[in-house]
Write a structure and sequence with these properties.
Belongs to the purine nucleoside phosphorylase YfiH/LACC1 family. It holds the Pfam family Cu-oxidase_4. This is Purine nucleoside phosphorylase. Keywords: Hydrolase, Metal-binding, Transferase, Zinc. The chain has a single domain, classed as 4-Layer Sandwich (CNF1/YfiH-like putative cysteine hydrolases). The radius of gyration is 17 Å and the shape is globular. 20% of the residues lie in helices and 25% in strands. The chain has 249 residues and is an alpha+beta fold. The longest helix is centred in the first third of the chain and has 15 residues, at 48-62. The strands form three sheets. It has a six-stranded mixed β-sheet with strand order 4-5-8-7-9-13. Strands 1-2-3-14-6 form a five-stranded antiparallel β-sheet. It has helices at 48-62, 130-135, 137-142, 169-176, 198-208, 231-234; strands at 2-3, 6-9, 19-24, 79-81, 93-96, 103-107, 111-117, 123-128, 152-156, 166-168, 186-188, 193-196, 213-216, 240-246.
């Protein structure tokens, strides 16, 4: 999907028209290398002017109803309600049941999850790095929903793919200690290293909560160099953003 030279990835789900959800790519912005070009993060040493221009381009391309509710993400399990948001708040997920509150998650390999119930009255956006995922960020977020879990649909937005996410014994044990079933998401490469499938790890957690409606989880931010930023690949780099909001019916 392309709008005004920006490119977006959109969820492959069937939601009411008033639910708007997108993930940006790195294309269409003004930032120079290594942030080329649609870097939307203030904390990565890109200039404030470039980031603001990129955010303006994003707002224009998607006709955003309001400025995104940016979070200071810390790999925690903290979830906030969009009505409690303020500038600089630390959290790794945001729940919303209000119109025109644009929930936003920034990533460059970690897993963004966008969630909506079938009627489009409740949404959430989650930042799930391995630590937050292991500690229960998904479970803590789902607890906010009033609707039952069988009415929720989750889109797994672009993240690091299973062939590139090498982790150590500590990560393996963090998930196995929660559930033995997590072993299916790991491929051992030597005595102390594994390839981890962060998409599969998230799906396992979601299924344990009774969520069966899931889509996405087929991108790789590391290998799709021209489309996505990747901290693991490049170190100094920009951030893509996954957004979701409830529009007017």
């Amino acid at each position: 999907m392309v709008r005004k030279s920006l490119e977006f990835v959109t969820p492959d789900w069937t939601m009411p028209d008033h639910i708007q959800a997108y993930t940006t790519t790195r294309k269409g912005g003004v930032s120079p290398p290594p942030y080329d070009s649609l870097n939307l993060a203030e904390h990565v040493n890109d200039t404030h002017e470039n980031v603001e221009k990129n955010r303006q381009l994003l707002a224009s391309a998607l006709t955003l109803p309001a400025s995104p509710l940016w979070l200071q993400q810390t790999h925690s399990t903290k979830v906030i309600n969009s009505q409690d948001w303020y500038e600089g708040i630390e959290a790794d997920a945001i729940y919303c049941n209000q119109n025109d509150h644009v929930c936003a998650i920034m990533t460059a390999d970690c897993l963004p999850l966008l969630i909506s119930n079938q009627t489009g009255t409740e949404i959430a956006a989650i930042h799930a790095g391995w630590r937050g995922l292991a500690d229960g960020i998904i479970e803590t977020t789902i607890e906010r929903f009033q609707d039952s879990t069988d009415k929720l649909h989750v889109w797994l937005a672009p993240a690091i793919g299973p062939e590139k996410f090498e982790v150590g014994q500590d990560v393996f044990e963090a998930f196995i200690n929660h559930s033995d079933t997590a072993q299916v998401a790991f491929q051992q490469t030597d005595n102390s290293h594994y390839l981890a499938d962060i998409y599969q790890l998230a799906r396992l957690r979601l299924r344990q909560l009774g969520i069966t409606q899931m889509s996405g989880g087929d991108a790789c931010t590391v290998t799709e160099t021209s489309r996505f930023f990747s901290y693991r690949r490049d170190g100094e780099t920009g951030r893509i953003v996954s957004l979701i909001w409830i529009g007017n019916k």
